Amino acid sequence: MKRLVRSSFLVAIAFMTLLVLASCGKEELQEVKVGEVTRSIFYAPQYVAIEKGFFEEEGLKVDLKTIAGGDKTMTALLSGGIDVALVGSETSIYVTAQGANDPIKNFAQLTQTDGTFLVAREQIDDFSWEMLKGTTFLGQRKGGMPQMAGEFVLKKHGIDPHNDLNLIQNIEFANISTAFASGTGDYVQLFEPTASVFEAEGVGHIVASFGTESGHLPYTTFMTKASFIESDAETVEKFTRAIKKAQDWVYANSAEDVAKAIQPFFEDTEVELIATVVDRYKQQESFAKDPILDEEEWNNLQDVMEEAGELPKRMDYNELVDTSFAEKVMK
């Protein structure tokens, strides 16, 4: 009996020793606090990078928070509440124009088109943009990229948003879809998955894509303060490499596989619907294929902002964009 107890004790000691050695040999992950402007399937590659362990492969642990609104997200970044912000590049222009002490740098692009769709109340087989004239249009918040890209597209098709339409812009972002479902408006500009949900429920019908019409834009990018890059450039490089791995994975795998990978971030949404949305964004290449924000996209962004009357002043590409990390992980 004593021999049995002694043997069990020795086995337990050996097992505990192995656990200690294993934990000592494992590299501790560095935490990076990330704030996303909203939770959206539009940001699928980010969630893939988390779920597929691409950040962990780089020695990083991402603490992801959703901070509603670009202004609040940038406030969190500037105050040190987060290390990295995922938000529209226009916010970096607004902040710089106001005279930020610590310059903001866009270092990795996640989406490269507008992510909204034009939804009509009735099904239209042969839609033309001319049909919008004289209708009530539920638009997005003034000064945000969805609104600016939306107006850019309307003007491209010869429609003056403020004279040819009954344009409604005084409804909070979170309430726009509810307002349309309740009977307000003939057309509405919506993000996914709401647009597809409305289509499935017969509330509305997708008739056009603002993303396809507005061209390539640095619609959503990862940005951080210049001081963070200076103090922790290695972390920024690792972060960018993880995003590039996720971008490659998204385009190399089916919409269904991507949907299954990111479903933990959208527990209330059926995986089939997530797949439909992912496929739509892949087809129009809304997900950036690499993290490089190029100068042509930057200029297109400023043209869109200028057309909407929201550009404080034109900002030099090299002042607010740092592609060195993206270029390095591309090699």
UniProtKB/TrEMBL annotation:
**What is the annotated signal peptide range for this record?**
1-22
Gene3D superfamilies from the entry?
A: Periplasmic binding protein-like II
The question of whether Signal is a record keyword is answered with yes
**Where's it mainly located?**
periplasm
- A Pfam family (short name) is NMT1_2
Which family, according to the similarity comment?
Belongs to the bacterial solute-binding protein SsuA/TauA family.
Protein name per the record? SsuA/THI5-like domain-containing protein
Give the organism's phylogenetic lineage. Answer: Bacteria, Bacillati, Bacillota, Bacilli, Bacillales
